[in-house]
Amino acid sequence: MAAKKDSKGQLKVTLTRSMHGRKPGHKECVRGLGLRRMHQTVTVVDTACNRGLIDKVSYMLNVEKA
Prior knowledge:
The protein is of the alpha+beta class. It has helices spanning 24-32, 48-56; strands spanning 10-15, 41-45, 61-65.
């Protein structure tokens, strides 16, 4: 059975800077996006919630359309 195509777009998010020494809230945002280690890439649904997480820690991320 094929997965359903989501009506919303998707974003590829890559962690480009270390979480070491960051504020606890920023670490939580990165973990909330599903990122665990440097240079890991995940695909997330383009929602307002995920956009908020990405905006908060944008200095640590590389974001592109999937």
